[in-house]
Amino acid sequence: MPVRIGKYEILEEVGRGSMGTVYSAYDPFTDNNVAIKLAHSELLTNEDGRAKFVRLFFNEAHATSVLNHPNILRVYDANVEDDYYYLVMELIPEVTTLTSFCKADRLLPLRNIVSVVYHAAKALDYAHRQGIIHRDVKPTNLLQTKSGQLKLADFSVALINRDDYEETHIGGLMGSPLYMSPEQITERDVSSNTDIFSLGIVMFELLTGQHPFRTDNLNTLVSNISTKPVPPLSEFRNDIPEELQVVLNKMVAKDPGDRYRMGLDLASDLARIFKELGQVNAEDILRQKFETIKNLGFFEYFTDVDIWELIRACDWENYSKEQLIIQEGEEDSSFYIIISGIVSVEKNGHRIDYLQEGDCFGEMSYLTNERRTATIRANTDVSLIKVNSTTLERANEGTQLRFLKVFVKTLSTRLAMTTRALTRN
Predict the structure, then answer these.
(1) Is the pLDDT higher at 314 or at 221?
(2) Measured between alpha carbons, how far is 269 from 249 in angstroms, rounded to an integer?
(3) Is residue 136 annotated as part of the catalytic site, yes or no?
(4) With 50 as the cut, is the pLDDT of residue 127 above it?
(5) CA 109 remoteness from chain centre
């Protein structure tokens, strides 16, 4: 770690990325602490790499020099000294990126997500009106302060359309393919609403904990982004207002002309949804559900991420004593997990078994896609989780394998019990 860069006294390393390392530093002239982003020296070792980096460096320096918005990370200075290329930025203590909240077990409350995207939309609108298209909107470039304020960062690949700037061509596919719009990933002309598309993908991740198009193959990714629709949010969680799905659909429309034209248009719709959501304790309720089902024997092999995905995506149902839950012969591929209470299993009008807390039923119809082979009726007041086949198909491979492991164990136990009963007879 350098002791000094220019007039700045280096204090400690606070972050590291692909382009550079960020240090906290002391500015003796202003008596303030700042952040310094110092380019990795290996980027400057060969002529081609150095030339490309220098273009990116000055591109970011110019883009941020004209931006002054509460939701955009301020850049105060840019300089080259010996082999040091560095940007001087505002220092934000205890900052985190939105990547932290794109995991199923760490999702923000719904109202907070709407607020985050609202402020990002306003930041983008401001940049667009200054003639700057970000082109790399993704969770790692969206920062959240300890107080919850959003900051848009990293304008290194921004497209600058200003009279006072002569565009320096930066060749190749610039940005992060996972968050690119169809026109960006196919290297066609982009406009301000390509950033709106990217923000829509970020919002999808914040809401679901999953990326809608993730794949390890670039050609497949290009095809998915260009032609494949974003999956409905209802397949991942059941508390999404219909208005929010409409907003997301408009953000990630394949045709740029069908998207929001400006960030303020998007912010206006999000502000209305934010107001309608109101102050609810939804996260407290979800946390109670998490603690309840985590202790069930059924979920012995499941991770916290598995359980959070299930809680958000599945239906929670209550039945009173003697109420019919599923009927023998009907078509339905859902299965159920008993949270509390007792149910009876009936076959041809005869009661043949009881199931209780932690047991599951309906898994045979899910596995075979055939009609129900038994009737299930509440023997007491019962609480259940209903898991749709689509929900499980959307889950990651590890989660599906853990469900199958429990199903095999359940079926083996029931087969053994049936064998013993036949032997006694």
Answers:
(1) 221
(2) 13
(3) yes
(4) yes
(5) 12
Find where tokens 């960030």 sit. 263
What is the per-residue pLDDT for 280?
Answer: 46
Query: Cβ atoms within 10 A of the Cβ of 84, count?
Result: 15
Q: Which two tokens stand for residue 252?
A: 């990630």
Helices 304-313 and 397-424: crossing angle in degrees, nearest 10, is 90
CA distances from 26 to 10, 72, 83, 399 (A): 7, 22, 20, 48
> What DSSP state is assigned to residue 34?
E
Catalytic one of 125, 136, 154, 195? 136
pLDDT, tens digit, for every residue of 349-358?
A: 888 888 888 8
Can you give the pLDDT at residue 418?
Answer: 63
Q: Residue 135 corresponds to which tokens in the numbers above?
A: 């082109």
182-216 burial, b for 16+ CB within 10 Å, e for fewer? Answer: bbbbeeeebbbbbbbbbbbbbbbbbbbbbebbeee
3-class DSSP assignment, residue 229: coil
- The angle, 0 to 180 degrees and rounded to 10, between the axes of the packed helices 304-313 and 282-294 is 130
Q: How far is CA 405 from CA 311, 395, 412, in A?
A: 19, 15, 11
**What gap in Å lies between CA 260 and CA 250, rounded to an integer?**
6
Contact 24, 35 (CB under 8 A): yes
pLDDT tens for 94-105 read 889 999 999 988
Handedness of CA 133, 135, 138, 140 (dihedral sign): negative
pLDDT in tens, 149-177: 899 998 888 888 876 555 544 555 667 89
Is residue 73 within 8 A of residue 151, CB to CB? The reply is: yes
CB-based contact 142:98 (threshold 8 Å): yes
